[in-house]
Design a protein that fits this description.
This is ABC transporter substrate-binding protein. The chain is an all-alpha fold. It has six helices and no strands. The protein is elongated, with a radius of gyration of 18 Å.
Length: about 120
């Protein structure tokens, strides 16, 4: 017996397949939001003893702007984009409700997380 670690870097399908076949006991990140949602609602996954557990994460997805660009280099344009981004739709549609809207570069549960962006743009 013992512990074997296997890296599935960049190969989501192989990781999902190994998980479904019982070749791995745990997967941390690495699966797409769609795959996680499928595993969470799949009767096959439940039958095979696969359980999706949610928790806080330090992973952050964010937009980056070239401030030297003549359009998005303008603070007013970036603020307008911040107001217009529908974070709840992104979470629902893109992340299949496997994430939470983020209004800070520091996720909730991590020291330094604040609500200033939510207070302004939420």
């Amino acid at each position: 017996s013992g512990v074997t670690l296997e890296l599935f870097q960049g190969d989501q399908q192989a990781l999902q397949s190994a998980l479904e076949k019982g070749d791995v006991d745990i997967a941390y990140r690495g699966l797409s939001a769609k795959a996680i949602a499928e595993l969470d609602t799949s009767s096959t996954a439940e039958k095979d003893g696969i359980e999706v557990v949610q928790g806080n994460s330090a992973e952050v997805q964010h937009m980056v702007f070239n401030v030297d660009d003549p359009v998005v280099g303008k603070l007013a344009v970036r603020k307008a984009i911040a107001y217009l981004v529908d974070r709840h739709s992104l979470v629902s549609e893109v992340y299949q409700s496997t994430a939470a809207p983020l209004y800070s570069i520091i996720p909730g549960g991590i020291t330094g997380h604040g609500t200033s962006f939510f207070d302004t743009y939420g």
